[in-house]
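Hey, resending since the last one bounced:
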Amino acid sequence: MQSPDDARRKTLILVLCCLAQFMVILDVSVVNVALPSIRDDLGFSATDLQWVVNAYTLTFAGFLLLGGRAADLLGRRRVFVAGLALFALASLAGALSTSQGMLVVARGVQGLGGAIVAPATLSILTTSFAEGAERNRALAAWGAMGGAGGAAGGLLGGVLTELLGWQWILLVNVPIGAVAAVAASRVIAESAPASAGRREFDLAGALSVTAGLIVLTFGIVRTDVNGWTSVTTLATLAAGLALLGGFLAIEGRFAHRPLVPLRIFESRTVAGANLVVFALGASVFAMWYFVSLYLQQVLGYTPIEAGLAFLPMTAAIIAASTMAGRLVARLGAGTVLATGMTCIGIGMLLFGLVRTDGTYLLDVLGPSLITALGIGLAFVPVTIAATSGVARAEAGLASGLVNTSRQVGGSLGLAVLATLAQGRTADLVRAGAGASDALTTGFHRAFVVGGGFGLAGALLAVTVLGRIPRPAAQREAAPARVDA
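The structure tokens again:
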């Protein structure tokens, strides 16, 4: 039986890890409601505005697996504290930004800090709490805080933006990160770094994949200026693809301890699940982005009103996630995942019917609830599918990979859809259409293509994954693992 001091220390560790996870996940979504205010203040164009989101998600995705390895090799407490400090400093720089470039760079460094913090929190929890019920409770709380961070982003972003200014969505991270870093240095015991022979980083892999994604996204975004067939666009896209090809070469042939051993994709289930979660990210990230803009720029909502408008979606996601674990045990991960992705696709297509003179009840609430139902139903089974049949030693890799695929899908999907929407809006403005009509019609194009991503994910879930057989014992354990 553990002593009161030991129990108190574990409670503090859990609070610190949950707080850090909440903060990191929150910063993916908290900026959405603040985007119109940021655009007005710093003069972003409609297509460049997405870099406020993508700078964070791309660096987060590109360095996530490296961050997890750094915690194992250099010491969990040391890496956790360093990540928190970097995240807080980048947040401060972002809040003080006076130009577009300064904010985008700060958001990118924030993403790097998040990629260090997120896997370190999970590693600290799994080594601080005994395997079994104690660890499962800790991981469930950690998973719930991550979900709460994503769900609370809209409302918190709206409140801070309207009452204090958009800078506070970043500034609030500074005291939280500083206090957490100081507390972690005192509460969390340092782990022994790996031996010198095993301290190998695949830094080349992390840099090449991140650079490739950024260059590829940049090429897509600039098509509104250069066109899809211009020499500049084709050269930029080719450079991005070459960097990603270099990443595959590094992982397959040159890295001694690759971030992503390519053999993991020999599993049809793992490969299929990552393709589906890529499509999920491409649909859902864009949905939050464009609905936030529609509510404020077309319907005239204030940031707080826009944040409140997302609350029914939050409740629907929580309810559907609760049902998903039980449905997977009865129907199989593939069936539930296909259903969830179908709901996402249908919801996005219905968003494609929003009107310039629309209302929340008639134009937004129905599609938002259908999409939210799909998100809740899809997230649990895609995580199960991504880790199904993977060796225990590679379970962490598979879990990190599915998170990376979701972030990458979200970033590239948002780049494509924002570019398509802006192109359509610009064409209509040149033809003499009103600003609200042009914006709404541009959003229509983005929502419809996003719906196509969702339905493509559903088709992949049916054809590639099907019904994934799982032993009864695993079915019972699924909810705990998914929360983790």
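The radius of gyration is 22 Å.

Sorry for the duplicate.
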